[in-house]
Amino acid sequence: MKIILDVMGGDNPASEFVKGAVLAHDRFIAENCDAEIILCGNERVIREALQRLRRSADMFAIVHAEDYVTMEDDPMSIVQIHKDSSMSRALKYVSDGKADACVSAGNTGALFTGATLIERRIRGVRRAALAMVLPYECPVLALDCGANVSVTVEYLVQFAYLGSVYMEKVMGVEKPRIGLLNNGAEAHKGTALYVETNKMLREASDLNFIGNVEAKDVQFNKCDVLVTDGFTGNIMLKSCEGISKFIMDKINNELFGGIGGKLSSLIRRSEVAKILKTFDVTEYGGAPFLGLAKPVIKAHGNSDANAVMNAVMQAVKYVDTGVIEYIGACADRFPKIVVNDKEK
Amino acid sequence: MKIILDVMGGDNPASEFVKGAVLAHDRFIAENCDAEIILCGNERVIREALQRLRRSADMFAIVHAEDYVTMEDDPMSIVQIHKDSSMSRALKYVSDGKADACVSAGNTGALFTGATLIERRIRGVRRAALAMVLPYECPVLALDCGANVSVTVEYLVQFAYLGSVYMEKVMGVEKPRIGLLNNGAEAHKGTALYVETNKMLREASDLNFIGNVEAKDVQFNKCDVLVTDGFTGNIMLKSCEGISKFIMDKINNELFGGIGGKLSSLIRRSEVAKILKTFDVTEYGGAPFLGLAKPVIKAHGNSDANAVMNAVMQAVKYVDTGVIEYIGACADRFPKIVVNDKEK
After folding, report:
1. A117-139: burial string, b at 16+ Cβ within 10 Å, e else
2. Contact yes or no for B242 and A263 at CB 8 A
3. Which segments in chain B show pLDDT lower than 70?
């Protein structure tokens, strides 16, 4: 299996991605995993980074690209002015069959647009969704986590189906419980779009829809799949990220610093750090775009080498599960909703 | 000053509200505060609760109401089948000038609808907003926190003005920094509604608009006022509530329980509990509906006696600040936006 890694366009320099690739490579060997990594980006920079890591300049195949997509670029730029960028070339390598999966930490909108246009969607799927497994009391697959900022009822209902297949086939959850993220548990809660989506999901007899789920209950084993639009999903995840960092800072200052400083010798900071790491999205590995015809994994924008390694491992796992084939086999029965359904 | 407290319709029984009123009453005395509390609800239940607390049955004036609004009731029910409920009667007491402020922990939608129809809005204000001060590194006033699930560009722009006046006049912040909660910092991020709102806020030269703010940055002194719609605001707050409870549980189990149990004698649980209490919304006191012509304070649905006391104290403070008069004096210059602006 071949994984192509876009080493440019994340918040960190390309050398951090090369380091992540080296970590993943070493893990492949340790775990006897038959996979290899192709690096996509500026060849000179990559070789220099390998040299600084005292690794052979030839340990990875390299696909050279001078250009790259920045976080500020328009999503469509990936097929226009940045059509020769590292992200675009990595995606094309997969669509050409020269690699099995693509990993990038770059601009989410550009990666989503590029992946949709270059890899295409599975037949019957209206929109792919960025799907992330949240490591709570019981793992929750949240989708969409930021790709589709504007959605329709149809997109949301299809996200429920995509998530249900993923949790059943990849995570082995029988009849996954589908929840709709909303501002209240009652069916009449939320915007008109959410009220209508709740109604359509209740009518979908082949889904195990359990109703609306509030953001304060997501952590506590309420559902296996959490359906949301990309705007709201982003706010939920980033709120969790911000608050856990804020708590970490407070614990470090108030429990370990100042008058509590003496306690630092009694309890290990690492105990607290370990707990709070649960909420560090860079630890989650990458998130696949569910519904695409080829595996594309989005790593967190500020991924460090460890996060890059996790995302590469996630790509290997994603290819291995064959979930794309599972979705392909059942996407024909995904509902198509056309009445009064425009993006909101 | 007279504060009328709706003792029914929260998640906890009326007796908990009576207990909260007693706590607030005792604090008034301790702090030499010239305020009194009127209780609104079932008179028999209130007198029984006072008796159980070994307090005089006559320590509070009581406005009797048999009926109450439940969390499941439709918002409009407060002026229809529940027009004689404790919530409705408490609101009318204020509009009739018999009390200076109303506090309720009941159904947010019903309280918002009732408050808008009974107290009315300040002239020039299109929609009142539920405004909450978040106790982060630097306090952030977030609005709307759940009253207006569907909004227009005009509502959001007006929320920015309401919040700016509040932070300047009540919290003493000079030129409050206004941020727009969004899924990315760039001006083109978000739904069409948010892109347009960002544009209008940039054009509002009398506001100190600093641009979009991501949910992961709200905690870290990025802005003084955070503008959002009620749906998104609810998701943000409830995400923080859920994740902080989840962290609390994990710390209790992993740091104090099991093999780490022996540590419990070395560090006090209360240190951690104190930190995490920062994120307990029941500690925040109540949230005012900014933009109404009379003070109405929403307490958290699951308020305990302590939270009720905090909400009553917040009501006293809110009346004292005279913020309603400040808003009244400048609401005429709030922008009115009519083009292409329908609720989304």
Report:
1. ebbebbebbbbbbbbbbbebeee
2. no
3. 254-284, 338-344
Which of B149, B251, B276 comes nearest A190 by C-beta? B149
Distance CA A39, CA A41 (A): 7
Q: Which residues of A touch B247 (CB under 8 A)?
A: 244, 247, 275-276, 279
Query: Band of the pLDDT at A335, cuts 50, 70, 90?
Result: confident
Q: Which residues of A touch B237 (CB under 8 A)?
A: 215
| pLDDT > 70 in chain A, percent | 89
Mean pLDDT of A4-22: 95
Residue from A109, A127, A89, A95 nearest A8 by CA: A89
Judged by CB atoms closer than 8 Å, whether chains meet at B215 and A241 is answered as yes
Instruction: Look at residues B189, B295, B250, B32 and name the one whose alpha carbon lies nearest to residue A244.
Output: B250
> Which whole-number Å values give the CA distances from A58 to A6, A44, A228, in the listed order?
17, 12, 44
pLDDT in tens, A47-105: 999 999 999 988 999 999 999 999 889 999 999 999 999 999 999 999 999 999 999 99
Q: How does residue A170 score in pLDDT terms, banded at 50, 70 and 90? A: confident
**Helix or strand run (H / E) with residue B287:** strand B287-290
> Which chain A residues contact residue B257 at CB under 8 A?
none
Question: CA B307 → CA A46, B241, B284, distances in Å?
Answer: 57, 15, 8
With beta carbons under 8 A apart, name residues in chain B contacting A245. 216, 219
SS3 at position A161? helix
Nearest chain B alpha carbon to A279: B243
Decide if B242 and A219 are in contact by the 8 Å CB cutoff. yes
**Higher pLDDT, residue B9 or A256:** B9
pLDDT at B222: 96
Considering chain A, what is the average pLDDT of its residues? 90
Question: Is the CB of B191 less than 8 angstroms away from the CB of A149?
Answer: yes
The span from the CA of A316 to the CA of A309, in Å, is 11
What is chain B's length?
A: 344
C-alpha B222/C-alpha B179 separation (Å) is 8
Cα Rg, chain A, nearest whole Å? 21
**Structural tokens at position B55:** 């307090």
Tell me what pLDDT residue B39 has: 98
